[in-house]
Amino acid sequence: MDKIRVLIVDDEEDFVETVVKRLKDRGLDAVGAGGGLEALQLCESREFDVVVLDVKMPRMDGIATLKELKKKSPLTEVIMLTGHGSVDSGVKGLQLGAYNYIMKPTPLDELLKQISQAYERKVIEMERAGSE
Amino acid sequence: MDTAHYHKILRLKMIAMTLFFSLVPLFVLGATIYYQFSEAYRSKMTEDARTLVQNRRNSLELFFNERISQLLTVAHAETLDRMKDETYLAKVFNVMQSRSKSFIDIGVIDEEGNHVAYVGPHHDKLKSVNYAGEPWFHEVWSSGVYISDVFLGFRKIPHFIIAVTTTHGNKTWILRATINSEIIEEIVRQARLGKKGDAFIVNSANILQTSTRFSGAILTRSIGPDYSSVVRTTLEQVDLNGNEYLYACAPTSNPKWVLMVKEDIHEQLTPLLKTRYLEGLVLALGVALVIVGTVLTTRSMTNELMRVQREKAATDDLVMQSSKMAALGKMAAGVAHEINNPLQVISEKAGWMHDLLKDEDVQSSPNFQEFQDCIKKIERQVERCRQITHRMLRFGRRMEPTHEVVDVNHVLKETIAFLANEALHRDIEIEVDFGDDIPRLTTDASQLQQVFLNILDNAIDAVGNFGKIQVRSGVNSSRGSELFVEIVDNGPGMPKEMAKRIFDPFFTTKSPGQGTGLGLSISHSIVEKLGGNIEVDSVQGRGTTFTIRFPTGSLP
Predict the structure, then answer these.
(1) From CA B552, how far away is CA B556, in angstroms rounded?
(2) Residues of chain B below pLDDT 70
(3) B352 neighbourhood in chain A, CB within 8 Å
């Protein structure tokens, strides 16, 4: 089985760096990005199965990034990561096509579980798209 | 100025103003009506007296004129020779009497004053009398007609005479008749009004010509003012011994008498006085009604004003408290969010360290177990912080007004969790006994939480160190399926008077500066607004129980 290609997008560099290392340790093809623009650039250069996207980021926030991302690669699953008090941004993400949202701080096991489930859905969606 | 004093002053001002603007027109109207009525009545009384005296005077004059006419007719129709015959004179007298019973006798007097013929009851005494020396004898010769004043005469009864002269050829003679005074007495008597009214006739010398009720005996000088010389109808008010009388006087042309009608003004005004008493009574009743109405209306209005002001104060407090809580919620959410990001980093770094410790080289390190324990503790503390920040985020969300399906037990658990640390530090035991499967409420969870928080916070203050608080929930089917929450503390309790005022705004049992006195008032308002009710039951020395109830009939 191919490695799950994951892009972690968060303006918190320490978080991105650590979580990427840990995901790689667990056999995932993980890459980090410090903001929305950087993430979109990366998505243009290569394909990701799952993108973990922080909602609140400077310059281009998670929601705006999600919209652009879904335009370019609609089959890429996105998990919103929010430390924000309101669940509204998470819900808005779901309405825009995100797979799920997770509240910070979240244990890595929970993140891994969500990534695996998102990936499974992507596979199913791709198979369905291929058969049509 | 405190509120009670302000309302008292306001009430008094309203009463004074309303009474002034109600009673002044009432009194002015009453006085005007009475004055006008009194004037009209007095005017009518005067006019009535004038009419009465003139009518009676006219009756008298009519009577005199009729008698004179009778005598003149007989005198002109008969001759002296025939009239000297007393048998003939008796016939004439009988004819006259058949038309009028007022004649007592009749006599014929010749030029020398000799009483030549007489028919009447005193024949023996009067037949041969000569009247040549009498003043009236000369007067009748000069004027042709003469009416005497009243006198007693031989008969000793009041009477007067009418005499007329007539001439046949060269013989002139006098026909004289005596008239019974009773007729004029009767005419005058009819003018006596009431119990104190009087009517009588005086001659030109103010000597009474008729009997009176209170003004003296007949043929004596009349008691009271002298109107014997009046020449036209005269009305005058006279004060006699403190009593006011109205004198109405009308002169007769022949004889020169004056008919006087005397009326007691006080007696005549009796109906007016009765009206005055009645008006006074109506006025007094009106005043009493206005006063009672004003006091009741004003009291009702000020009570309503006080109620509205109290409600407004409570609403203002609630709004202020809600906005404070909303701001607090936003701040809590902001703080939680800012902490979550570093917590996530700490969590990942600890996780990474944990991953690294799995390397074989590190596992042989003598401090490996110590490192692992430390990392686990860091992860546990991160988890603890996560729970706190997530609770704060939920609290922040709930400060915004919502309408949601709420599990009351869950709200109670969260509220207790907020206070658990404080309770722990003060060794306060919080015992919970939540009913299973209690229905969910469609309500505002944050406001409900605020109520529980206020009551629990008060309970913690009340029980002090080592106290005990019990929190129960359940459904009371005996009270129409109510959902209830009971918060029982074993604090010092409070007197009943204090318990009655516990939900009043600004009422506090805490030391100055320790409490605003708004917490329970706001809680009360919230519970009522959410459709429930809140009660307090306190026993001094044993503790206090707050019970919050919500009807479950309208619950989902």
Answers:
(1) 8
(2) 1-2, 154-155, 321-322, 360, 394-403, 479-480, 505-518, 553-556
(3) 18, 21-22
